[in-house]
Each structure stands twice: as C-alpha cells, then as structure tokens.
Amino acid sequence: MRKPRKLKKYATYHVMSRANRKEMIFNNPDIKEMFLDIVRRAQKK
Questions:
Q1: What residues have CB less than 8 Å from 7, skipping those under 6 apart?
Q2: How far from the centroid of its chain's Cα atoms is residue 5's Cα?
Q3: How far is Cα 29 from Cα 36, in angstroms, rounded to an integer?
Q4: What span, in angstroms and rounded, lies between the C-alpha atoms of 45 and 39?
Q5: Based on the number of CB atoms within 10 Å of its own CB, is 10 exposed (0-12), middle (13-18) or buried (19 or more)?
Q6: Contact 26, 35 (CB under 8 A)
Q7: How many CB atoms lie within 10 A of CB 4?
Q8: CB under 8 Å, gap of 24 or more: what pairs does 10-14 form?
Q9: In a structure prediction context, what are the per-residue pLDDT tens digits for the chain, which is 45 residues long?
Q10: What pLDDT does 8 receive?
Q11: What is the b/e burial string over 12-43, where b = at least 16 CB atoms within 10 angstroms of the residue's CB?
Q12: What's the DSSP call for residue 6?
C-alpha cells in the first residue's frame, strides 16, 4: 500500500470517479449532484 499523499493548502487536485465495466454512473442527475455535494464538502475540509 502506498503512503497517503501530503495535501497542500493552495494546490489544485484532479478528482475522478470510475465505475466497474466502464458503466456511465452520472446519467442520473440526482446521483451526479450527490457526488458533487460530497466533493464540495470534502473541499471545505
């Protein structure tokens, strides 16, 4: 297992999500909004 990355306060990070079998997981707008909400909350931390 690799060591956790040290996060820097003003750095820009790329966030991606991938599903099994290359399924499209954001076809449903509710699921996409839920994912974006999680990312926003993590960004505030």
A1: 13
A2: 15
A3: 10
A4: 10
A5: exposed
A6: yes
A7: 6
A8: none
A9: 889 888 888 888 887 777 888 888 888 899 889 989 998 998 887
A10: 87
A11: eeeeeeeeeeeeeeeeeeeeeeeeeeeeeeee
A12: P
Kindly state the tokens that stand for 41. 């909350």
CA atoms within 13 A on the CB side of 19: 9
Which tokens belong to 35?
């994912």
Tokens read off for 23: 């399924």
Write out the two tokens for 38: 């999680």
Structural tokens at position 3:
């060591």
